[in-house]
Every structure is written in C-alpha cells, then in structure tokens.
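Sync notes, pocket subgroup
Present: LS, DG
LS reminded everyone that the earlier model was apo-only. Rerun requested with adenosine-5'-triphosphate included. Inputs:
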Amino acid sequence: MDPTSKQKNQAKRRAEELMRRIGVEGVKLTEYEMNIASHLVDPQTIKVSWRDIAGLDEIINELQDTVILPFQKRHLLPDSKLFQPPKGVLLFGPPGCGKTMIAKATAKASGCKFINLQASTLTDMWYGESQKLTAAVFSLAVKIQPCIIFIDEIESFLRNRSSLDHEATAMMKAQFMSLWDGLDTSPTTQVMVMGATNRPQDLDPAILRRMPATFHVGLPNTRQRQDILQLILAGENLSNAINLEEIAEKTEGYSGSDLRELCRDAAMYRVRDYVRKEHMRQIAQQLQDYQEEERDSWLHFILDGNVPVTLPMTVLVCTNPFTTERFENSHQ
Ligand SMILES: Nc1ncnc2c1ncn2[C@@H]1O[C@H](COP(=O)(O)OP(=O)(O)OP(=O)(O)O)[C@@H](O)[C@H]1O
C-alpha cells in the first residue's frame, strides 16, 4: 500500500485541471511531474502586477531589461546563445519588502508559467522521493516552458554545504545544481530559477554563482514609504488632516508589509471606535427609555391617588403643574 496515494491522486487532479487552464495540452507528465504541476500558477490568474508594487521602480526597470525582455522578444534573436534570460535570479532582503510580489509580477509580465515551490515540497518527502521530485521540477519546467521556477526561502534547502549534511540532502543539492546546469545545454530552453531569501549569507556559494542576477530588496526609505502608503491608501476615505509625508518620516525601519498592517490597524481602529460609540449611544438611549418608563409608572401611581412616602424629587420636578397640584391636594 502506498501511504501517499491519496495525496498523489489529489495532486494529479489539480495538475490536470491547471494544465488545461493554462493551455498546455497533449503533454504527457510523469507521476512526479504531476505532483510538481500542482504548484503551477497560471500567469493569467496572478493578481500582482507592477502597479501593485510601490517604491521599487529601479529594481523593476532592471528586471524588465534583464529578465523580461529576453523572454518576450525571443523571436528577435531566436538562435542567439547570448540573448537569453539569466538562468538564475536572486531576490534578497528583509522579510515583507516585496520579494514574492516581484517574483509574481515578473511571471505575469513575462507571460511565463510559474512554479511556486516551497523548499519543504522537496525536502519533506520519503527517502528517494525528494530526488525524483527535484528531477521532476526541471523536466516539467522544460516541458511547459517558458517557465520560472520560484523557490521561496531558497537558503533553507540550498544552504552552505557542510560535513553535517544528511547524505540525502547533500545528494539532492548536487542533483539540483547539475539539473540547473543542464538547462544550458540548449540555447532555446527558456527556464529560469528565481530564489528569494532573507539570509543570502547562508546560501551555498555554488548556488550564488548560478544566480548571476541579484537584486537587493531592502527596507524602504522615507520617499519609498510615502509611495507605499499612497498605494495602500488609494481609494480609501481619508481625512484631509492626514499627512503621508509625516507618517513616512515617523515609520523608519518599517517594511512594506509593516506599513500595510499599520494602515489596516488604523482602519480597524476607526471601525472599532465607531462601533463602541454606537454601543454607548444605544446604552444611553436604553437608560433614558428606562427612566421615562419609570417616571410614567410613578405618574400612574400618583394619578391613582396614592401618596408615595419617598417620592423622588425628580418626579415632582418632571411632572406637570396639574399633577403636582393634585399630588399636593391629595397630600393635604
Ligand atoms: N513595495 C511594496 N509595495 C506595495 N506593497 C508592499 C511592498 N512591499 C511589501 N508590500 C506588502 O507586504 C506584503 C508582503 O510582501 P512580500 O510577501 O512580497 O514580502 P517578501 O519580501 O517576499 O517577504 P518574506 O521574505 O517574508 O516572504 C505584500 O503582500 C504587500 O501587501
């Protein structure tokens, strides 16, 4: 009995559906390629585009020239070994600064299929399966090219080799690199590995060499923070008193993701504030209704000719002169 059969069947169904949607038909896939294909992203359905990324124009322009142009304009120099996208691109920098967004927008702009791999997809497997899956990543990418293989947290499985590495891990790394090199054998192959990491210093130098295009996606400066805030708050109902320049100055050290959270918190705070005030208003209204009801019941009591021993002054003050008079008369 295969303990992974349920998982494999699900991956197969998902992969077949995806392949149909992205217009790859008549391509026969192995069981392992099917598994990898379930991580395939249809470029049409990628929601992130360059317009959603603020403050990173320099990186975007550079990516457009070095990566996207060779994919898009391949027909201009179809046989050239030089007019090629780099085989490896590395995006590095602190968390939450837009690396994943850039990778997705690159795939969308270049029209490439996008295999979104978590390192764990390859490493959490049974002994022997990892190697078959790694081979499947590259063979699938070649079958459906042009294709970007995106590996988030790439350092977690292609880290510095050490003598402490498990034999299977060491073999998988060596295999990954040799398959990567294999992409170079045909000048027409349009497959690129794109990695993202917060810890470039942990990456194996041999991997770094295979990624000639590196982009530092750092923490945004004041101007970039203002651009990000402007983008996040576009279309929101903002008070005229809000000064984005001032907020940008006060948020040194914030990533794009932190700024988004800040704006989300502010919106939540306004709604919470409104809901609380509304709640207080309702309580005040209920209290007032209750007091009015109480007063009415006292009035009935008085009008019926009863004399309360401890009639609250408020009732006397609130009642009309006629009632008070009756009360006084009856009291005498
Ligand atoms: N430059 C930016 N412009 C607009 N939004 C941004 C920017 N940078 C970050 N964000 C916001 O932060 C979120 C997280 O960004 P993203 O996932 O691309 O970061 P990352 O660098 O890949 O982080 P991690 O290293 O944690 O994976 C985005 O979904 C977006 O809302």
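DG: The domain at 220-302 is CATH 1.10.8.60 (Helicase, Ruva Protein; domain 3).
LS: Residues 53-56, 95-101, 152, 196, 198, 228, 231, 256-257, 260 surround adenosine-5'-triphosphate (CB under 6 Å).
Action: DG to write up.
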